[in-house]
Amino acid sequence: MQELRPELRIIADWIAPASRVLDLGCGDGTLLAYLRDHQQVSGYGLEIDPDKVADAIDNSVNVIQTDLDRGLNDFETGAFDYVVMSQTLQAVHYPDRLLEEMLRVGREGIITFPNFGHWYCRLQLLRGRMPVTPSLPNTWYNTPNIHLCTLRDFEALCAEKDFHILERTVVDHAHRTSLPMRLLPNLMGEVALYRFQRRAR
Amino acid sequence: MPKTIPADSVGLVTPQSLHFDSPLELDCKRSLPAYDLVYETYGELNAEHSNAVLICHALSGDHHAAGYHSMEDSKPGWWETCIGPGKPIDTNRFFVVCPNNLGGCKGSTGPMSLNPEKNKPYGPDFPIVTVKDWVRSQARLADALEIEQWAAVIGGSLGGMQAMQWSIDYPERLQHAVVIAAAPKLSAQNIGFNEVARQAIMSDPDFHKGHYYEHDVIPRRGLMLARMLGHITYLSDEAMRAKFGRELREGKLNFGFDVEFQVESYLRYQGQSFVEKFDANTYLLMTKALDYFDPAADYDNNLARALQRAKADFLLIAFTSDWRFAPERSREIVKALLHSKKNVSYAEIEAHHGHDAFLMPIRNYMDVFHRYMERINTGQ
Lengths: 201, 380
What we know:
The complex is a heterodimer of chains A (201) and B (380). Chain A is α/β, with parallel strands linked by helices and 201 residues long.
């Protein structure tokens, strides 16, 4: 039985058995391999890093080497039940467009990102420095993270785009949750996980 | 010449040949009453006959994909980088079959073979063969070798197109299709290059409308030009720059039309040596097979519909600097496979070698290829 890192565990629990999944930034394909072996899920992963592509092939996962900034034009509308993007939103050029695309090709979107509104980030900014935290370990001058946001930012964008948030979980960098996190998610949560869909018209 | 055979080579190999008596109906509505296919095999066929892999060759390739014919050979087979013990196509696991295609000039029936109706070589009368015809002939070879299903059909360039065609025409007969540096069909630019190559050959005074065997000549200049042109399209600008730059053979300009730049010398050498080992009529046929390849044509020009029939899992590989069959062309195939919900993986390998990259031992390429092949179940 494969061990799944806690964040992926939460995502896997959100995904119904036998569904079709597209995983954006699938890495070595751990999530897809797990979903295939335990939940009869089929689908594809997209990954830009050549070594991770080879790792995903090793995991017998369908992996397409591509840059997410090219969009999801290769996929048909409604081709998937879920489109997952874990810890990648903050690194793409056009997060808003990609979110739209996620809900074009998939029925539901599942997304995780580091919360820039976490108190420790805010504290470092108050001290006049760019945050460096366990979930955001890169320095400002050497980081793939170009579009950081807070929970509130993300939810405002969802409202603007008419996306309906179905579920939200916030956890710390070790993926534990706690009462303060549940009470003050935008201040206490380090990593945000959302499941969302387009609001029925 | 290899003083000793490297440990990761299949070693000394001997081509084999099979004669087929029943006529082969061709796309051009003609048929070949009988024909020979010459092929090589590496590795051992297992008891269940479930570990066989078919290698399809490209334009100027042949059945000699790996190993050496004798200790005097200066070079191994054309895909030595990928076939052998411990290599991506691991001969410790797989039984590898590589035939020379019909219309070829290395032993399979082609323009140089005797036309039984006229008692002289076919020459230009050899029927135009297509990728589909080749696949049909390869299926008969599989029958003869008692291989019901290939573990994989694999090819680069025109070879990759055959692998694709296999998956459409004989969906039950392969588990995996590995399609490398290929395209779903040729572009106008691709066909344009082929046409220039053909014109070079056909306008050579020694061509004699394809009947040059009877005149005891070969259209040397035409075939050489065709190869020189082809060779440029196999390399990237960057690779040529790195290899030759503007280096002068004699270190100075001579203000004449003899060879001055190293690249001129290289291309002439490539062209001249090609003339000694390849037949012009075969070259014409192979370029036509490329031009005609269009598996979607039989399915309302819808590639996804064509591939809907396929049951194989696919691996597609393209190379960043390949401008003959650029990554975008492979992505067209990937897109069609995604639309028809097939199992497919796609790797875009960073390489500066151009189209020829599929023959090179590039680390990431070997890694992806090897790991994909390793996961293939041979039932053992």
